[in-house]
Design a protein that fits this description.
180 residues; Rossmann fold; globular
């Protein structure tokens, strides 16, 4: 079996304060280990505060802010969860524009846990089959998606997963999708 390679690929991770650390770190390590270059896109320069559930954890350096980020310069996008992270992102016009640009271009996107809140705001879930943390079911359904309770779901260019327990499947699936 040939290992998946992302050599030469640039992957954007869009996150801000309150990102669930494991949902940022494990997918980032997976795509970097496959050869991708990763950049952290956020709302403000400096660093973001990650969390382990509701407890503060480490900080991570921001590479570029959403107002300056160009989706055209990336091959794929990952939206980690955490409760606060996507709630902040979905209220920022530049972050929403950045997300929508990946869908407009048909580029692959991976999203986990509460991350789909930003997709709802970007109006890109209508007609799609998606999973998430269970509390987003109504929001996603109201936005026109078909919500399912499955470990990992791929619908076209969108791969979604429910929670940190699903990270092994999510990391494998996004690495494969980003390599295609």
């Amino acid at each position: 079996m040939t290992a998946t390679t992302l050599q030469g690929k640039r992957i954007a991770f869009l996150a801000t304060d309150g990102v669930e650390e494991v949902e940022y770190v494990q997918p980032r390590e997976a795509v970097e280990n496959a050869g991708a270059t990763v950049e952290l896109v956020s709302l403000k320069p400096g660093s973001i505060q990650a969390c382990n559930h509701l407890d503060q954890s480490k900080t991570y350096d921001v590479d570029v802010t959403a107002d300056k980020a160009d989706a055209g310069g990336y091959d794929a996008l990952v939206l980690p969860g955490g409760v606060a992270n996507p709630d902040f992102l979905r209220t920022d016009a530049d972050a929403v524009r950045f997300v929508r640009a990946f869908f407009d271009a048909g580029k692959p996107v991976g999203v986990i846990c509460h991350g789909p809140w930003t997709l709802v705001e970007a109006d890109v879930v209508r007609g799609r089959r998606i999973t998430s943390w269970p509390s987003l079911r109504t929001d996603l359904t109201n936005a026109g998606a078909t919500w399912v309770d499955e470990e990992c779901v791929t619908d076209g260019n969108l791969t979604s997963s429910r929670k940190p327990d699903d990270l092994p499947a999510f990391c494998q699936r996004i690495t494969q999708a980003f390599a295609a």
